[in-house]
Structures are given as C-alpha cells and as structure tokens.
Design a protein that fits this description.
- Chain A has about 375 residues and is of the alpha+beta class.
- Chain A is built from nine helices and 20 strands.
- Chain A has two domains: about 240 residues, P-loop containing nucleotide triphosphate hydrolases (Rossmann fold); about 120 residues, Beta Barrel (OB fold (Dihydrolipoamide Acetyltransferase, E2P)).
- In chain A, strand 7, helix 6 and strand 8 form a beta-alpha-beta unit.
- The two termini of chain A are about 35 Å apart.
- Chain B has about 325 residues and is mainly alpha-helical.
- Chain B has a two-stranded antiparallel sheet with strand order 1-2.
- In chain B, a hairpin with a 4-residue loop joins strand 1 and strand 2.
- In chain B, helix 2 runs antiparallel to helix 14, helix 8 runs antiparallel to helix 11 and helix 13 runs antiparallel to helix 14.
- At the A-B interface, strand 6 and helix 3 of A face helix 9 and helix 10 of B.
Chain lengths: ~375, ~325
C-alpha cells in the first residue's frame, strides 16, 4: 500500500481521533511558538508535521512528549487529558533527532532501559530486547557501545529503544536527518514497514518535504506556529491552498494576473508576466477582475520549439541556463516579459525527444488541469 | 583531461615533497611537545625520588649530611664496597607506630574524600545546571579562597573552632549548648580542615563532567519512564564517573600525606604519616628512616593508582 492509499482509508473510516490537540498555544516569553493550534490525529496514522525552523513543529512534538506544557489549550491522547501527566508516565515514546543514546550503555542495555525502569521481569526483558534487536537487525552489534556504531545503526537502536515499551504513540524528531541520502531512502521504507506491522501511531516532525511526502499517510504544513494546510501528501503537493504552501513544498513558478472570464467550469486569467492568457479547467470562487496568482510546478511545463495550437497557456521565451543533474535537467527560461521560469525535464537523450540548448527560442505550455489558482 | 587532473595533482612529485616535509616537521614538533613534560618529570620527580631512595638504604650518622655513604672505595686494596641498609624498611613493620600512622592516614583521607564528594556533587551539579550567565561567577567563587594563603585560612579555622572561638561563642549565646564544644584538636577538626581545603579540587572536575552532560539524555530517560531520581542514578551518575574519579584522586592523594592541617587543627592523638615524617626528619634527624617512610607511602599510593589508570587507559583504547 502506498502512503496515499493508507491515508485514504483513514479518511474513509469515520473514527474517533486518537490524539486531540485543542486550541494549543505555547509562548516562550513574548515569542509565540505555537499559536492557537487545533489538530486531530487518528490511530495508526503516520502523521507528518512539516515546517521550516521556528515553525513550531518541534515545540508541538515536545508538548506531546510532555517536555513542555501548553500555555493555553489542552492535549488529549486516547481519551486522557495529558495536562498534568509528566513525561515518564505517558505511554508515548520519542525518537530524538540526536538519538540521545546513553553512551555508557551497550546497545542491549540502551534498548532495555525503558523496561528496566518499569520493573519488568528480567526474563521478559531479555525476550523483548531480543525481539527488538531482530526487528531492527542489530544482532551483530548487541554488545557494542553507541560510539562504536555508524549513524544508521544508531538510528536503529534509537528506534528499537523507543518501540520496546509498546507506546500508543511514537514521536519521531527528524528521524532521517542525520543519515546520508542512500541510507535515507532505504530507511524511509523500513520505517513505513515497521509502522504498518506494529500499527503504532507515528507522529513525525521534519523540515524535509521529500521525507514528509514519502513517509506520511497524512501531513500538516506548519508556519509561524499555525497549520497552513492539512491533507494527504499528494493533495498538499498538487493543490496547495495558499502561496506559502505552494512555495514551501517543491519549487513552483508563480504568475500574477487577474480573472477575465469566470465560468462555473473554467476560468481565464490574463497575465502580463506569462505573456499569454492562462486557462484553468475548474471553477474558483472569486470576484470578477480579482487579482490572483497562478502556481505551476516545474515538471508540469512542456517545452517545445514549435508554437502550440491554442493561444492560451503558451509562453514564448529563450533558454537562459541549463543545469544537468543526470536523470533530469533543470532549464531556466527567460520569458518575453522578462520573468524567469524554471522547468524540469527528464533526460531521454537517446530517445526521439526534442533537444534543447542555450539560447534556443522555445514555447512553454501545459494542460488546463496542471496549474493551481491561489486567491490568497 | 579535466577528469584526471585531480589525481595528477596529488601524484605530482613537488607536492609529495611538501607533504613529506610537513610530516617530518610534525614529528619534530611531537617530540618537542612530549620531551618538555618528560624532562620536567625526570628532573623534578625521578631524580629526587632516586635521591630519597638512596638515603633510605643508608644508616644514620652524626655527620653532615646525617647519613652514611652507600659506596666506599678502598684505593689501596682496590675494593669497592656497596653497603645497603635494609633495616629501615624492616623497622617500619616492627614498630606498630608506622603501620598505625599509615592506616590512620588512609582512613582519614578516605573518609574526608567521601565527605568532600558528597558535599561537592550537589554544588557542581547546581553550577553546571545554572544559567550560563552565572556559571562563571559561581566558578570564580569556588576558586576565590585560593587568593588567600592556605596557612592563613587554616589559622582562621582555628579561630572558628577553638574553645572560645566564633562557633562556640555563637552557640552559647543563642543557648543551643551550655558547655563549649570540644572540636579543636580532635579528628573532627582535621576532617573539617581537609574538606574545606580540598573542596574546590573536587568541585572543578565534577563540574567539567556534569557540564558536558547532554540534556537530551535526561529527557530521553524521562521519556522512557525514569523518574528524576532514577534518571540521576542510571544516567547522570554513571556519566559523571570520570569526574568523580579525578576529583577523588585530587583530594585523596594529598590528604594522605597532609601535614599542616593535622599539625595545626588535630590533637596529639591524631596520627598521620605526614606528621611522622616531619618528626623523623626534624626531631630525630633520622633521614634514612624518614626516607623509608616516604618511599613506602609513595608505593602505597602510586601503585594502586597506576594500575587503575592503566586499566582505564586500555579500556579507552578498545573504543
């Protein structure tokens, strides 16, 4: 199942929220880290909080763990108000960004730490630690200290240590941040598999949109302590509801313009910047002549040497710069209006595709469903 | 050939020469850096140690210097005589005074070290956890007493502890006691003096260890179900062991051989090896005996510590 499919199931099932964040505000002095935020997270979701630094995502996570208390508002987990419950009494565990492994303990002892503090019988601890070590494939390293492990191995220990108490919720703070690119990709899928097999609710905080997209069954984009958009990863990517989300997630080309034709099933937008009318095949709620922004992703733009048949969605320009990236190339096109547009194109040089080089005169076009109109 | 130019650059012979030059210079620097403390230790530790060891094997004489020569050279017969007197060492184990003094010194030093640790740990912890703005001020306050003479501070304690001193005066006036406490010239006074004097030596290494402690480790422990006390015993305490070891050594070693504090604050029955040494040297003028006492004390102290450091050192290498 892809993350999107799993997400769909969650929304289809009308369930009681598992984590209810109700009008939570957190202030540090005058600084408002989290601003009157409300959010429901459902059981067995892999929920991602995506945002830049200072967006309040980590503060929200720390409030879930119990390291910070909300200034206002309430957090309810599995029907229990968390306000007066200290971190060590919450059946929530956290995987820290730095992993926070105890340097004086071996891998085994690190993983067993939580159970030992609970006073679980030694025989049971041994069995459960072994299960966890098997799950994260660290059999060879059980007797080592954290300093003798690689970054990826430490990450696994941290995961095992956080999962062994069978928490209701697992909080992950930038879980893949310290890994290199190759290892990240592998670990992403592994995390999803573990989450699926255990059914634990995961709440992931990340600043990396790619990480959020691959991991999340549902995600929220945060900025300045507020949620900007909440939805399935592909919804957030394809249909951003405001300029911040469109620009934060992936890269986007933005054209300013005003509405000239507003029909229930389409709109036509005049844009000087684009050098052509822009046609969008869905209705929007707007007033006539309203100023709007049209967002279009670089990979949705087609480039051709020949002028397309229709007059709309057709921007003439010149290839200004090309960045070759192996599997794809990024082109910077200077439109006749002076605006620079970024487009990405897969490299299929050995196929029959058109070939573009510097200073080529080109036409940019895209389908009527490819762009999004942003009114705010 | 843009792709191979990088490799060519590394393989160029001039660069190799430069690299070798740097390597040579580095080794010279290394030798220099190591040689300074080595020479220092040889001149100021090893040579005096050998001199004392030599004296300990001679016999007392009423002469200048007050001990016999180890070597005698008979020029007529061409015989070299080496006279080693092991009697001093044997006497150490015959007379219970010395064994009692060693034992008592180690006991007093061990108890004071333990008490110093108990007092210093919360102080070091508080300083390490305080706001960075106040940390330097608090550390300066810990070191501040060193700006006055050590002897002066011990005399000040005499003023506090004696029969008609500040403490007794206060307690009598308030009415908590009606007879002055006899603290001066007892073992208690010696403990107070040692703990007071060596407290900074315990606080500083503890502070260094605790200050390095990563706060997220404490959060991780709390997250995994450990209360504040359990977090302290299972995370903070084990991670501060290097500081505890260093602090205890810095207090225990000088406390064993301490002379001034027991001499000024202790009573006639406070038996410590530092005082026995003093008596042998200056009252009995028995230099060979005094030297033997010193050598044995050194072996008692240095050997276990060296063994301990050695195991610690190899443990570190296994990482």
């Amino acid at each position: 199942m892809s993350p999107a499919e799993r997400g769909q199931q969650v929304t289809l099932e009308e369930r009681q929220p598992f984590i209810e964040i109700k009008n939570v505000t957190k202030k540090f002095g005058d600084f408002v880290a989290v601003d009157d935020l409300s959010l429901d997270i459902y059981q067995s979701e892999l929920f991602c909080l995506l945002g830049g630094s200072g967006s309040g995502k980590s503060t929200l996570l720390r409030m879930l763990a119990g390291f910070e208390n909300p200034t206002h508002g309430q957090i309810v987990i599995d029907g229990v108000d968390m306000t007066d419950i200290p971190p060590w009494k919450r059946s929530i565990n956290m995987m820290f960004q730095s992993y926070a492994l105890f340097p004086h303990l071996t891998v085994e002892s690190n993983i067993a730490f939580g159970l030992k503090r609970e006073g679980v019988a030694a025989r049971e601890i041994k069995a459960r630690v072994q299960d966890m070590i098997d799950l994260v494939q660290l059999n060879k390293f059980a007797k080592r200290k954290p300093a003798q492990l690689s970054g990826g191995q430490r990450q696994r220990v941290a995961l095992a240590r956080a999962l062994i108490k069978r928490p209701k919720v697992l909080l992950l703070d930038e879980p893949l941040g310290a890994l290199d690119k190759k290892l990240r990709e592998e670990t992403q899928f592994e995390l999803i598999n573990i989450q699926e097999s255990l059914g634990v609710t995961f709440v992931v905080v990340t600043h990396d949109q790619e990480e959020a997209m691959t991991l999340a069954s549902r995600m929220a984009v945060m900025h300045e302590g507020e949620i900007q958009q909440l939805g399935l990863p592909h919804e957030v990517y394809e249909f951003p509801t405001n300029r911040f989300v469109a620009e934060f997630i992936g890269s986007v080309n933005m054209f300013e313009g005003h509405v000239v034709e507003d029909e229930p099933d389409y709109v036509m937008i005049a844009s000087k910047e684009a050098g052509s009318h822009l046609y969008v095949s869905h209705g929007i709620s707007c007033s006539p002549n309203q100023n709007v922004s049209v967002a279009i992703r670089p990979e949705k733009i087609l480039m051709s040497h020949n002028k397309p048949e229709h007059d709309y969605n057709c921007c003439p320009g010149v290839v200004e710069d090309i960045a070759y990236m192996g599997n794809m190339s990024v082109f910077k096109i200077r439109l006749d209006s002076g605006k620079t547009v970024r487009i990405t194109r897969f490299n299929r040089e050995r196929s029959e595709d058109e070939y573009f080089t510097w200073h080529d005169k080109v036409f940019l076009t895209w389908g009527p469903t490819s762009c999004v109109v942003l009114t705010s | 050939m843009t792709t191979s130019s990088g490799a060519a650059w590394i393989a160029s012979p001039t660069l190799k020469k430069v690299a070798q030059g740097i390597k040579k210079k580095f080794n010279w620097g290394r030798a220099l850096v190591i040689s300074i403390p080595t020479i220092w230790l040889a001149i100021f530790f090893l040579v005096p140690f050998l001199v004392v060891f030599k004296i300990s094997l001679s016999t007392t004489e009423i002469a200048q210097p007050p001990y016999s020569a180890l070597f005698a050279w008979d020029a007529e017969e061409a015989i070299a005589v080496l006279r080693l007197n092991l009697g001093n060492y044997l006497f150490l184990f015959e007379d219970t005074l010395y064994i009692d003094a060693y034992w008592s010194s180690i006991k007093i030093a061990a108890i004071s070290t333990a008490l110093t640790l108990v007092i210093a740990y919360p102080m070091a912890y508080a300083i390490a956890r305080s706001h960075p703005k106040y940390r330097m001020i608090l550390l300066a306050l810990v070191i501040l007493p060193f700006w006055t003479s050590f002897l002066l501070r011990v005399y000040a304690w005499m003023g506090f502890l004696k029969k008609d001193g500040v403490i007794n005066g206060f307690l009598l006036n308030v009415g908590i006691i009606d007879q002055p406490l006899a603290i001066m010239n007892t073992d208690t006074a010696v403990y107070i003096g040692i703990i007071y004097t060596y407290l900074p030596f315990m606080i500083l290494p503890l502070y260094t260890a605790l200050e390095k402690l990563d706060g997220t480790l404490l959060e991780a422990a709390a997250d995994l179900g450990a209360t504040a006390w359990k977090t302290f015993f299972f995370v903070t305490l084990p991670l501060s062991v290097p500081g505890i070891v260093a602090g205890c050594m810095l207090v225990f070693i000088p406390a064993v051989g301490e002379f001034v504090i027991p001499a000024l604050l202790g009573g006639s029955d406070t038996l410590m090896i530092g005082r026995v040494l003093w008596d042998e040297f200056f009252l009995n003028r028995d230099w060979p005996m005094a030297s033997a006492v010193a050598i044995v004390m050194l072996l008692f102290l240095v050997l276990p510590i060296m063994l301990f450091r050695n195991t610690q050192g190899t443990k570190g290498e296994n990482f």
